[in-house]
Hints:
The protein is an alpha+beta fold and 375 residues long.
Amino acid sequence: xxxxxTYLVVVAxxxxxxxxxxxxxxxxxxxxxxxxPLLLLCTLLPALHQIRVNMELPVPVVEQGQKTPVVFHIxxxxxxxxxxxxxxxxxxxxxxxxxxxxxxxxHIAGGHKVSxxxxxxxxxxxxxxxxxxxxxxxxxxxxxxxVPLPKKxxxxxxxxxxxxxPRICDMPVLVSRQSRxxxxxxxxxxxxxxxxxxxxxxxxxxxxxxxxxxxIHWKLSAKTGELMVREQSLPLGCPVDIYLNLYQxxxxxxxxxxxxxxxxxxxxxxxxxxxxxxxxxxxxxxVQREDIRRYRIENEENIYEMLFRLGQLxxxxxxxxxxxxxxxxxxxxxxxxxxxxxxxLVLKKNGEVVSRYSGTDDDIERQLEAKELMV
Length: 375
């Protein structure tokens, strides 16, 4: 834009000089300056149909506040361009926030060459961000004329997903004996010790005094000539259920820090529970699927997988009974502790408020570290 304005000023000055001094030379120069943009446009248009633009995220995971590389693969045709290319990348943020737009600028050349341009994206917002190319503008080598690249040369590409991790901190967690011994109902079973779930066999072993007669494997005992016992499995239930209440009153605008803080609190609670060896479920309502969803957290890797699964968290304007929807879909024994975090960053345990979080990421981190959570 600055180059075009400067060029128009030069054209105006040339015309003024030609009229002022009645100069044929300056008048001819004025005509050349008027025709030059049209000539540049005629050389640029044929080259557009041979350009292809592709975007790649080599590192799809980054921590908040850091920069991650973004690579553009630009294929040019035989026509030499040598000008600047402006690429607008749109990032779709979670929880209904306004899309983030970033411009990237690079130069390309002709000759059937593929340019690999490396840029950097500053990850300011937490969550799973869907990044895709929104616009591509090609300039001539003087930077005077800009023409949009047709959508068919980049619109068909699938969006890239960038996971921006929140700041995870260690909060004090006290796991009760009842939660540690919780079995419940689960499709997961222990590989270390047996239990009383008849739906799955933990192991076959020799009979020991005190074993119940109904646990004897009579068919196998007849084959071996010794009493063999079928030991039942131990289900690994989750004693803690964490509900993500994403209800937002109509017309209420949430600050960016609240969204980032929401994911920071969830990730920190899950991390601290796993450090204490406490399995748990994270449960939320998926607006797009109109269904309740859950994810089982057993190790630290599950936390990052969960953040990916949460994807584009979307708030909703109608109150939903998450516990009722959950128990209607999953007919299992509920956990001992039910945690719920709403969009106002209020944490409830079994229906009672235990913490209210506010402020910046540093403030929330101090609040998380200051109060012990008992489950």
